[in-house]
Amino acid sequence: MPDVFEGILGQPQVREFLRQTIAHGRATHAYLFTGPAGSNKTTAAYAFAQALLCEKGGCGSCDTCIRIRRRTHPDVHYYAPAGAHGYLVDQIREIVSDATLAPIRACRKVYILDRVDQLGTQAANAFLKTLEEPEGDVTFILLGRTRDAVLPTLVSRCQVVPFRFIPASEAAGILSQNTGVTIERARIAIEACGGSLTQAIQFASSSERMSFRSRVLEVLRLLPQADERDVLEYAQDLIERARAPLDEVRTAQAEELADSSEFLASAALKQIEARHKRALSAATVQSLFQLTSIVRSWLRDVLAVSSGAPDRVVNLDDLEAIRHAASTATPASLVDALREAQRTDEAIRYNVSPETCIDVLLFTIRKAIYGSGCSY
């Protein structure tokens, strides 16, 4: 019978471990999920949270499971680094303080901390006692890329669950099998979502997201004829389109607040509002990362053709434009453009204005690929 762990695609050993943990009542208070980006650590963390809070061990269909899946359950908290160099001490103190409070709906609270390899010594010191001996029924799920990148003092207090790297070809096959889309569309979706299978499933099945991708590729094709004003307008248009799905997030959050306002105290409502703010911020960053991922995918295709490896092209539906760009660019200039795309991701993650980031990225691509051939 299907359960919440079925959604942890490409990680059969992790699925079985988590199932057995729940089935035999062996859950502990702290876990460290380690693995590369796109290995489904976040999906697994939320599935585990469902199983921990659900009275049926993760049925997937009850109110608790649905709320956790939609990221609206008040007792499941997600955190990511808020500072330019990682987690802030005040951030960790907030988690420690909140962990002492009673759950709002369930009998347990779950805290998911992403990118804990960015949790420095000072912040970690404020967390260690709570991580080792939390008050009440609390479970911490820490997510990191590698075990070695996480402070040993954190690792020693957690049960480590390793996630394997999922090759792009295998990921495309899994996505195609689970959604019915073609392998070509699956590859496009995986590239657009930075390798995340969970996000790629939603992307590949969404006509709105695929339309967004088409607009990004169109802008890249228009850059040779674009003047400065055109580039600025293109950047603003792409940002607005990237943010469009956030309206759905806001609607769901408003519904949750309306549903909870009648029976929750003001302090609990403030907790929900704070979680909503974090969730909206995370959704904003995710949407902008999809924009830069599509750009990077296209640039890599241009580099592949320029380097004599056209069989590695992913965006086959834009092959003519890719070939044209490859005929005017050099491998060195394309590498520069790809580096700028990476810098754009880092700037967005650290709350630099998206408008400024995408402006600079498009100007850099225009110069790197089309050089003096632009009409400006």
Task: Provide a compact summary of the structure.
The chain is α/β, with parallel strands linked by helices and 376 residues long.
Order of helices and strands: HEHHEHEHHEHEHHHHHHHHHH
Query: Helix share of residues?
Result: 55-70%
| H/I helix tally | 17
Mean pLDDT: 89
Largest beta sheet: strand ordering: 2-3-4-1-5
Unreliable stretches, pLDDT < 50, 5 or more residues? Answer: none
Biggest sheet details: 5 strands, parallel
Structural class: alpha/beta
Quaternary state of this entry equals single chain
DSSP summary, beta strand count:
5
Overall shape: it is: globular
Radius of gyration: 22 Å
Beta-strand percentage? 5-15%
Distance between the termini: 62 Å
Write the layout of secondary structure elements.
Blueprint: H1 12-23, E1 30-34, H2 41-53, H3 63-69, E2 76-79, H4 89-99, E3 109-113, H5 121-125, H6 128-132, E4 138-144, H7 152-155, E5 159-162, H8 168-179, H9 183-192, H10 197-204, H11 207-222, H12 228-243, H13 246-260, H14 266-306, H15 319-328, H16 331-349, H17 354-370
Parallel strand pairs: 1-4, 1-5, 2-3, 3-4
Question: What are the key terms here?
Answer:
376 residues; 5-stranded parallel beta sheet; globular
What does it look like?
This protein is α/β, with parallel strands linked by helices and 376 residues long. Helix content is 59%, strand content 7%. A five-stranded parallel beta sheet has the order 2-3-4-1-5. Helix 4 (89-99) links the parallel strand 2 and strand 3 (109-113). The longest helix is centred in the C-terminal third of the chain and has 41 residues, at 266-306. The termini are far apart. The model has no long low-confidence stretch (mean pLDDT 89).
